[in-house]
């Protein structure tokens, strides 16, 4: 008799182990036992391009030329941005850049100063 838990998505009892992961053959959902809370804790910490943890109010530097969508403006490499705010979503930094105005940035294109 299998002691593996049922699938959390479809409740199928036919789950099987593949290394450290559990897999459901009916809905193809993959998960680990007990590790989901650790993954959620890591997702809440926003990190810059080199792995430094970002917080509200930090000062960052842009590490790549970024075109501003819908305009001919470009945020140049080395642009300093002060007093950032972290938010949820794909673009997880909300800030105001001098000469451009309010915008959202991805944390993968910035470095903490």
List descriptors.
113 residues, mainly beta, three-stranded antiparallel beta sheet, 1 helix, 28% strand, elongated
Give the helix/strand layout.
Layout: E1 16-18, E2 21-23, E3 30-31, H1 36-44, E4 60-62, E5 66-67, E6 74-75, E7 80-81, E8 85-86, E9 93-97, E10 101-105, E11 110-112
Antiparallel strand pairs: 1-2, 2-3, 4-7, 4-11, 5-6, 8-9, 9-10
Q: What would you say about this model in short?
A:
With about 110 residues, the chain is mainly beta.
Report on the structure:
The chain is mainly β and 113 residues long. The protein contains 1 helix and 11 strands. The chain has one helix at residues 36-44; strands at 16-18, 21-23, 30-31, 60-62, 66-67, 74-75, 80-81, 85-86, 93-97, 101-105, 110-112. It has a 3-stranded antiparallel beta sheet, with no helix packed on it. A 3-stranded antiparallel beta sheet has the order 7-4-11, with no helix packed on it. Strand 5 and strand 6 (74-75) form a beta hairpin. The relative contact order is 0.16. Residues 36-42 have low confidence and may be disordered. It comes from Pseudomonas violetae.
**Helix-strand pattern:** EEEHEEEEEEEE
Q: Please work out how many helical segments DSSP would assign.
A: 1
How many beta-strand runs?
Answer: 11
Oligomeric form of this entry?
single chain
Kindly report the spatial arrangement of strands forming the biggest sheet: 1-2-3
Proportion of beta-strand residues:
25-35%
How much is the average pLDDT?
87
What distance lies between the first and last C-alpha atoms, to the nearest angstrom? 56 Å
């Amino acid at each position: 008799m299998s002691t593996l838990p049922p699938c959390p998505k479809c409740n199928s009892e036919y789950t099987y182990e593949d290394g450290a992961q559990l897999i459901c053959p009916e809905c193809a959902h993959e998960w680990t036992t007990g590790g989901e809370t650790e993954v959620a804790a890591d997702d809440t910490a926003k990190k810059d391009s080199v792995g430094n943890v970002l917080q509200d109010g930090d000062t960052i530097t842009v590490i790549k030329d970024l075109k501003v969508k819908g305009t001919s403006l470009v945020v140049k490499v080395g642009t300093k941005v002060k007093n950032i705010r972290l938010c949820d979503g794909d673009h997880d930094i909300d800030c105001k850049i001098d000469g451009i105005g309010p915008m959202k940035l991805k944390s993968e294109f910035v470095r903490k100063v």
